[in-house]
Design a protein that fits this description.
The protein has 518 residues and is mostly helical. The protein has a domain of 362 residues. It has 23 helices and three strands. The protein has a three-stranded antiparallel β-sheet with strand order 1-2-3, with helices on one face. The radius of gyration is 24 Å and the shape is globular. Keywords: Membrane, Transmembrane, Transmembrane helix. This is DUF2142 domain-containing protein. It holds the Pfam family DUF2142.
């Protein structure tokens, strides 16, 4: 009887905690706090606060064809749009100044301009642009801000619904995987008008939805399959490479679920489904590679590695230098690369803290993974090296030019999701360690966001008395800093310090209709 007392007392304590704060309250709080974290990021940046903002806005305005007051198609490749889009990057000419130049220039320049800066050649899928074209208006500021806010609410809401359908432990691990891979670059992109706002979470959502569906039953399984479909739509509508990542996520989930040792008919069907999925992924990869890289890239790469590169092809020396510097993209996800238009250099505290948290979580997760999980992780890690290397070879570029960390962020988030799916933070991380992570992450996030706000509020070369704000209609910068800092603290605390999960419920899902009946 004495040996069972601690377990009994632990269950009583867990029950009391749940009686005070039901689980459904905690897991509705998480997406709400994410929304309140991302909205200040969305408001902080001016209209041209992210790469290719003019390209994406022009496409949103023009994707439906001629629209009076919004867009006129001059030719197959050129459109006439509001000339104010040409002012989007005026603040980048002098990083010492705040971006008031847009408001000043826009007020004096209501004309139109003809440009080729839109998606006339189908480099991006049009689904994302069609969705946001529904709320486009002649007011460019309103269009950009509504696009950012819609992205924030949509992604946070979908993650919240998916989490509510998952088993309690997997629900926490979904948010944990998002947390350890999204700061600061992910938060910056998710609150922008860049299509990557949809492509970044899509593979992670697809993996958790498919694995959760395979482990559940009834209406919850249908709900999770529906979420997997929505994740696929997000990826396919935003970026072509995101469709490949979503397909990889689905195959990874199927592979990890199947028991290949059984030889019954049911397992044969599963193996057939798995092989069919692998074939589908292979076809998608071939189609995407052929569309994006319309050249004999693989053959030229092999020739270069053998020391006999064709004319105009990257030599072997540069390929090896790129290979050795690929980790720069990984560190860029956690803040080593500048944000904004690649002009906002963050304090080195930011990448040190968030890469340290990511590395610690991955190390702990790998202590309990199976051989199948390890095999999937090795494949994703190899792909994470080869994909940017191939892109750099194709564009004849070196690390730091053309290819950006955001291209790899969906794959990194998927890697974290695969590793953390069965992870138990409470078993591997004592309370004091989780509190240390909470404090470190919240402080580093505040440092990152504070640097971004300062860039757009005061400029990088602040002079006493020069306090400006790029958009008169936005809440003040101090309010944004306080809101983002407090909301992210609450978001991280909800993920790391949420209510204890009884072992009986750790792998059992609870439908939304039953959550409030505990």
């Amino acid at each position: 009887m004495e040996s069972k007392a601690p377990e009994h007392l632990g269950n009583v304590a867990a029950s009391r905690q749940q009686a005070k704060v039901p689980q459904w309250v905690w897991w509705l709080l998480v997406p709400l706090m994410l929304v309140l974290t991302l909205i200040p990021w969305a408001v902080a940046a001016p209209l041209g606060g992210a790469p290719d903002s003019d390209f994406h806005l022009n496409t949103i305005l023009c994707v439906q064809g001629d629209r009076p007051g919004l867009c006129e198609h001059v030719s197959d490749t050129e459109v006439r749009v509001n000339a104010d889009t040409e002012l989007f990057y005026c603040h980048a000419k002098n990083v010492a100044d705040a971006p008031l130049c847009y408001d000043e220039g826009a007020a004096a320049n209501p004309e139109t301009t003809v440009t080729k800066r839109w998606n006339y050649n189908g480099v991006y899928p049009n689904g994302y642009f069609l969705f946001h074209s529904l709320h486009a208006s002649p007011d460019l500021t309103l269009t950009v801000m509504s696009t950012r806010i819609l992205n924030v609410v949509l992604i946070s809401g979908l993650l919240g619904v998916l989490g509510g359908l998952l088993a309690p432990r997997q629900r926490m691990n979904l948010w944990l995987a998002f947390l350890v891979t999204s700061v600061p670059l992910g938060l910056s992109i998710l609150s922008s008008i860049n299509p990557s706002a949809w492509s970044i979470p899509a593979p992670l959502m697809a993996f958790f939805a498919v694995r959760g569906a395979l482990l559940s039953s009834g209406k919850r399984r249908l709900g999770l399959w529906a979420m997997a479909g929505l994740a696929a739509i997000l990826g396919a509508s935003s970026r072509t490479d995101a469709l490949v990542f979503v397909a990889l996520a689905v195959v990874a989930a199927l592979f990890l679920h199947f028991d290949f040792k059984r030889s019954d008919l049911r397992n044969a069907v599963k193996i057939g489904l798995g092989l069919g999925s692998l074939l589908l992924v292979g076809v998608i990869i071939l189609v995407v590679t052929g569309r994006v890289m319309q050249a004999p890239v693989i053959g030229n790469l092999a020739a270069s590695l053998q020391g006999d590169p064709p004319a105009g092809v990257q030599p072997r020396k540069v390929i090896f230098e790129n290979f050795l510097n690929i980790p720069d993209y990984l560190m860029g996800v956690f803040g080593l690369w500048p944000l904004g238009l690649l002009e906002i250099q963050l304090p080195r505290l930011v990448p040190a803290v968030f890469f340290g948290i990511f590395l610690a979580m991955m190390t702990l997760a790998l202590l309990g993974t199976t051989w199948k999980t390890n095999l999937v992780l090795v494949f994703l890690a190899v792909l994470g090296f080869l994909m940017p290397l191939l892109m750099l070879f194709y564009t004849k570029a070196t690390v730091g030019v053309w290819v950006q960390p955001r291209y790899l962020l969906p794959l990194i988030a998927l890697f974290a999701g695969v590793a953390l799916f069965d992870f138990s933070a409470r078993e591997h991380l004592p309370l004091v360690h989780r509190v240390v992570i909470l404090i470190a992450a919240s402080g580093a996030h505040l440092a990152a966001f504070g640097t971004v706000v300062r860039r757009y509020w005061q400029g990088m070369d602040f002079q006493s008395g020069e306090q400006t704000w790029w958009w008169d209609g936005a809440p003040g910068p101090v309010f944004n800093i306080v809101l983002a800092g407090g909301a992210f603290l609450a978001f991280t605390a909800s993920v790391l310090l949420g209510p204890a999960i009884p072992r009986a419920q750790a792998s059992e899902s609870e439908p939304f209709s039953e959550v409030g009946k505990e």
